[in-house]
Design brief:
The protein is an alpha/beta fold. It folds into two domains: about 1-150, SPOUT methyltransferase, trefoil knot domain (Alpha/beta knot, 3-Layer(aba) Sandwich), CATH 3.40.1280.10; about 165-224, tRNA(m1g37)methyltransferase, domain 2 (Trp Operon Repressor, Chain A, Orthogonal Bundle), CATH 1.10.1270. The chain is built from seven helices and nine strands, in the order βαβββαβαβαβααββα. The chain is elongated, with a radius of gyration of 22 Å.
Amino acid sequence: MQIDIITVLPDLLQGPFSDSIVKRAIGKELVTINIHNLRDYAPDKHKSVDDYAYGGGAGMVMMVEPIYRCITSLKEKTVYDEVIYMCPDGELLDQPAVNQLSTLNNLIMLCGHYKGIDERIRENLITREISIGSYVISGGELAAAILTDAIVRLLPGVLSDETSALTDSFQDGLLAPPAYTRPAEFMGWKVPDILLSGNDKKISEWRFEESVKRTQTRRPDLLK
């Protein structure tokens, strides 16, 4: 998979991709992540990428030309399955969306900033708009990092135990059950006996029941 991320703050994305699972995926050549500085596509010597909004009002708007030039340049070299704009008013990111995106080959992620991007880009170049939640952060970089991490961990060969991702919260519409490890007793706090029984069938049934209980308590909206 190839992921191209367009941003005005390229250094902000170095940290999330230089460690842990994403770093290993890059090292195994299972994913290529390219970070593009939007200012490199600015038409003027000042590297301008934003301007005042027509009609007035507070805040700046990301200009149409640098984004157009960047996306057009990328498309000349690669065929993309989706051009994603990370924004507060996009579709709310969930596990089914991540699962679907992980099956694709090439993605562009455009990180919003300021008061957003010129609407003409959304109307003519963006194929999908995604939000990581009903709140606003300083820019789309951290949102793009979250989406990238969620996708990359699902790629075949990334996780040492590929079945691990299949038992994560939300994969089956439920939250994951409680998890325990050694020691079996600590400070008088005991691991449920069923998990020590060795009865795989009973353990699976217990985990499913606990997943349902936890979902009913913490995220009843998922059961609808």
